[in-house]
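FIELD: query
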Amino acid sequence: MILQSWYMFWIFIFEMPTGAIADFLGRKKSLILGCFSVLLAVTLYVIVPNFYLFLLAEFFWALSAALTSGADSALLYDTLKKYGHEEDSKKIQGRVESIFLSSIAISAPIGSIIAAYSDIRMPTLLMLIPFSIATIISFTLEEPTYKEEPQKRKFTNYIKTSFRILSRSTVLKILAVDLIFINTAGYFMIWLQQPLLEQAGINIIYWGFSQVAFIFSEIVVMSNFLLFEKLFGSKKNFLFFGSLIGGSAYIIGSINHTIPVTLLSIYLVGAFLLTRKTLMINYINKYISSAERATVISTISMLNSFIIAVVNPFFGFFAEKYLSTTMLVIGIATVAFAFISRVEENHLIEESVDWAKE
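FIELD: result
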């Protein structure tokens, strides 16, 4: 968890300036730089098993994540907007995230097999192959021309504009708070699921398959955002009951440690809490102009990373000593948030608004 806190700390530091880089130099260049950075990170990881070298590798991995986190979704949305398909952004964004998670589901068992028959270093070394392919692809991307783009401005002006947009937009702040809180609650399950499987008495040989099911639960929801909104009656209801279900899963999982309940708790959290960020980014995009989209999204991600970096060490300490109590606290907090969230149905629009007037 020290390595993870170190990683999140640098995500927090890098998110704002790298978002501004994406808006100032272009999303394509930001993605290219991100690809080169992760190639360096993987190379450092496989040189020699040294904790301090791992810290340096995590530094470059965080830089890569920050360079791509706002730029990729901004480039996707603006490309859809250019071709008149922005109303499909929710469906396309969910599909992209589903493909990403499917890739993890396929590669995780493969990585386990490779590690079992060689060593734990080899799966990491082989990551250079897909990252190299991604680097090549990034050079082929076409970046749309932004109609709203202002005249050339200083780099720091992008950062100032981002904070100004967030500070003056009540709706953006409400959506950002929802994204950050629920995504943080879901994030904890990424680290809790293995201790929970062990507590339930599930043999380690099945953990990889459980991870696949965990990812599949996310894919089911992200691939069917529209369907779930219809099932729950409205967009707001989907957000409310999603938080309620995820929080309740934490609470029930903290009390009942049987295998069926443990697995169900893990998968429900993945399905309804970890998918929230993808959905909320879709709505947030509607309130941001193309010229500042990557910077504002990066600002929100930066705040999320800061919160996780601060609570991570405390979370790790208490989860190690009081696993069930930690889950119970997260669950109660999530359920409480479902009732106090200020997100309204009219905030969840499907078409872009005049951000300057909002």
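FIELD: remark
The mean pLDDT is 85.
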